[in-house]
Amino acid sequence: MRLNQRQIEIFNAIMVYKSVTAAAASLRTSQPTVSRELRDLEKQIGFDLFNRFGKRLTPTSQAQLLHTVVARSFVGMEEISRVATAIKGRNAAHLRIACLPAYAEAFLPDVAQRFLKTRPQVHLLVHSLGEVALRHDMTTQLFDIGLTEGSYDYDDATTEKIDVGELLCVLPAGHRLAAVPIIEPKDFEGVAFVYYSEEDPYRRKLDEVFDTAGVTRHYTVETTTATGLCSMVAAGVGVSVVNPFTAAHYAKRGIVLRKLSVRVPYHIYLWRPARGLRSAQADQFVRVLRQVTEEKKQEFKVLLTK
């Protein structure tokens, strides 16, 4: 059995747009054509991809499983056209950035604001997802810049590690540990703790710190984002240890920052495509990013004295 490109396009469009009508519009074809092609595809593969309730389509578990593969390998014609345009005019006025939600909220706004002062004609597109989903998207889509917590190898791309500082303790205002200038792992014994999800790379590093100290924390909430974690802390749900960007951002919203006695270095991994696909705008954006990072590191020091 061999599926053709058109069948893959139609299946992907329906999964992405959630309806035959929207899928047809995105593919610049008619709804009957998409419906017919979908029925032919299901007949060819031998199982239903969608449950049909009137005009509504709900993906089956088989469709969701198939789409995990399609999403990794499918590159739409619009994306190919965008790459061709970028290659033809290296200074195209679009800059695509992939990053974690924490950076989109607590770091990139400062970089974008400064960058756009000198390059107002550039249109920034910020694509933010959790680490696992972001890693997937960076292998299947083209971005000018990628910012992750983990270091990954990509074909025709380079990565650079940027030192940001270290993880910081975050506490609700008025918490008893706020009176301690430098918090030791043992101070967290039995304390209500808000934590990262298990797949987070820094969770594993912190687990090593607390396991070595023989400390048992009381997990109250686990969350997939640093911003969600700090929101929980600000609401008094518990304490935590988080990246300095998000910690500093939430210091303006009432949480207290303290140093952890065991230093856990924090880095950003900057991903860039092969040099042949780099633009002058991306080069300038990276220069501004480095400047803002150095300024943020000084800001972290000031906040820790309060």
Strand order of the largest sheet: 4-3-5-13-6
The helix count comes to 12
Number of β-strand runs? 13
Globally, the shape reads globular
Measured as a percent range, the helix fraction is: 40-55%
CATH level-1 class of the largest domain: Alpha Beta
**Sequence stretches where pLDDT stays below 50 over 5 or more residues:** none
| CATH fold label of the largest domain | D-Maltodextrin-Binding Protein, domain 2
How far do the termini sit from each other? 66 Å
Report the β-strand fraction as a percent range: 15-25%
Biggest pleated sheet? 5 strands, mixed
- Counting copies of identical and different chains, the oligomeric state is single chain
How many domains would you count in the coordinates? 3
List keywords for this structure.
single chain, 306 residues, alpha/beta, Arc Repressor Mutant, subunit A, D-Maltodextrin-Binding Protein, domain 2, 3 domains, five-stranded mixed β-sheet, 12 helices, 13 strands
Describe the structure.
The protein has a 5-stranded mixed beta sheet, sandwiched between helices. The model has no long low-confidence stretch (mean pLDDT 86). The relative contact order is 0.13. Helices cover 46% and strands 22% of the residues. It is of the alpha/beta class. β1 (50-53) and β2 form a beta hairpin.
